[in-house]
């Protein structure tokens, strides 16, 4: 039996765009694999769960109502109580002599080149053909086909780097890149994440999406391996699929890690890192709701120590990006965004979310977030002396 939360229905009536009836209920769209009548199980901020159709899910997102789509991962967090019993602590940053030389090697050249291609796909929607193609391009860019790893990593470092696809039923896979550490996983894995997919409010429309988070962490990875980074703890870079569908990809990964009892020491999410609203101060938005407090304090210290701009505390609500999947499993997670939430890019989920639409899009601003990703990896992953 399908249950719709009454308050959500009222919000939908008031806020949803009026889609053409024939287009709304048709599943015959070239290049898409999407059944609008498929039932999905959603979870909302108050913990209430509701079964809705895929079409109703799309409408909820268009209305700005945040949720987790837990259809495939209803048990995520079932072992969360075990992690709460042994919560890690995070020391003050102290690897300045290692981090700062790496920061000087960061460049806007790679991000500009990568985004020109990444935003050229009509949409990176996770159930579209171009969404699959964009994921495969990103995978090839990271791995040896278009060799960021082969070009910048020493031969010996390449032996401790692995890249794999985490498969999903919808076809656009999550990408997981791992730099093995000298210690065992029991000492903790450090995760740096971003989502690779995009969507328009109506998924069949174009959605270039500026893709800033994805290339932000890619540039951080490039700088780290160029510096021959050899962590003590394993450091992983994740490019999640289907964030726009209700954090589907990151939930699947977090569920897998939880089932295998992987000790994730810390997870940092990068999503929207390039926008500086005209007339505002350039700053880093530190999300303070639905995150780990201690890791957030550590993140603030990294900004103060290593970045050239200040941070501002801000909130984004329940399930606003992939860090929420890890938080649900009680893994320490944080989220950093391009500004205060109210000053962030308002062109998202539209055809205007492009890198060339406004001088408010800044590659230099994006590099500040690459600095943060580098510092997060080195400070928490540590550095093995050869």
From TrEMBL:
Keywords, ordered alphabetically: Aminopeptidase, Hydrolase, Metal-binding, Protease, Signal, Zinc
InterPro entries documented for this protein: M28_fam, Peptidase_M28
Domain Peptidase M28: 175-367
Enzyme class at the top of the EC tree: hydrolase
Entry cofactors: Zn(2+)
Signal peptide: 1-15
Entry similarity comment: Belongs to the peptidase M28 family. M28E subfamily.
Protein name: Peptide hydrolase
Protein species of origin: Hohenbuehelia grisea
